[in-house]
Design a protein that fits this description.
This protein is of the alpha+beta class. It is 30% helix and 23% strand. The chain is built from 9 helices and 15 strands. The strands form 4 sheets. A 5-stranded antiparallel β-sheet has the order 13-10-9-14-15, with helices on both faces. β2 and β3 form a beta hairpin. α1 packs across α9 (311-326). The chain is globular.
């Protein structure tokens, strides 16, 4: 019986067998272990994350401020932003930052991940609504220019080669005129469960709470038929966002910018999130592309739960990663 929680682990085992490399998992956690390369060195993995990237570059990727500064040195467009220290009065600091950045704006922690504690603010009057009991996990806070972009994409590169690209959409529900918001979210969670997708929308999530208050809705409200309600401020798959693979559909300019960012990140394997101000296939100016963030551990686990079978493509992607690792 397969007891792996991660679907990446069996792929790594399959590739180790194919290439004749020693593969070992830990007794304590069957999704953590190592593969022995041709040089006899152990290469560790944990839930699909492999040790291709160096530690310092990975640390930079964990800070939205540092990574944004790095990318801006390459001449890539980044949103205007201010940092507020959590050691001071956060509310006053955000209020001052908003005067520089303007509204609407995005408020998020410097070291956040998976879209947690990300909020949009449309006026300074909403500050109490957004902050509430939220302390951003005692992290410093970024107040960032809001970019009204029709398209957001993630591009994954391995040693400068694009190996995957997809559009991302907000987690959302669509009303039927009968079901409450709570019921619609529960249906979404049931669909994730049926697809065996490792995602669950939290009914008491702080983002959802703020969004409902802003609309003067509650979980018992019946959403009108065909009305769409975005229930997250980011388009993260981990928060219930949806995605569409766009292989071979990136314009040459989008490819060029993605490779520039990968180069300055110094990460061998990197996921880059970009706002696209237009059609991704026809973008021909670099200022139509805005950097969001890059990730040293791009999550490809959710790609198993695409509406069509993506397992062969994902195997091919991980075979590229695997051969880079062991050689």
């Amino acid at each position: 019986m397969n007891k792996n929680k991660s679907k990446i682990t069996p792929i790594l085992r399959q590739l180790a067998d194919l290439y004749g490399r020693e593969f070992c998992v830990m007794d304590h956690d069957l999704d953590a272990g190592y593969i022995v390369g041709l040089d006899g060195i152990r290469h560790y993995f944990s839930y699909g994350t492999l040790d291709l990237n160096n530690n310092a570059a990975t640390e930079f990727s964990g800070s939205k401020i540092l990574s944004s500064e790095i990318v801006s040195t390459a001449g890539i467009r980044v949103p205007k932003e201010e940092t507020v220290s959590n050691s001071n009065n956060v509310k006053d600091g955000i209020r001052i930052a908003l005067k520089t950045v303007g509204v609407p704006a995005i408020i998020k922690p410097v070291h956040g991940a998976q879209g947690k504690n990300v909020f949009r603010i449309d006026s300074i009057d909403e500050l109490d609504l957004i902050l509430g009991d939220n302390d951003f996990d005692a992290d410093d806070v970024i107040v960032q220019e809001y970019i009204d972009a029709p398209t957001e994409i993630r591009v994954v590169l391995l040693d400068g080669e694009i190996i995957q690209a997809y559009k991302r959409d907000y987690s959302h529900i669509i009303g039927d005129g009968v079901t409450t918001i709570k019921g619609l979210i529960e249906k979404r969670n049931k669909s994730f469960q049926d697809r065996k997708r490792n995602t669950c929308i939290d009914l008491i999530d702080s983002q959802l709470t703020v969004i409902l208050k802003r609309h003067k809705y509650d979980l018992g409200f019946v959403l009108p038929k065909d009305e769409r309600l975005n229930i997250s401020y980011g388009r993260n798959l981990s928060r219930g966002g949806e995605y569409e693979f766009i292989p071979n559909r990136l314009s040459s300019t989008v490819e060029k910018v993605s490779k520039k960012i990968a180069n300055v990140s110094a990460l061998r394997l990197v996921g880059i999130d970009l706002f696209i101000l237009g059609d991704v296939e026809s973008i021909d100016r670099e200022d139509q592309i805005v950097f969001i963030e890059y990730n040293a551990s791009p999550d490809m686990e959710n790609n198993f739960y695409y509406d069509t079978d993506y397992s062969e493509q994902l195997l091919a992607i991980y075979e590229k990663i695997f051969t880079k690792l062991i050689n």
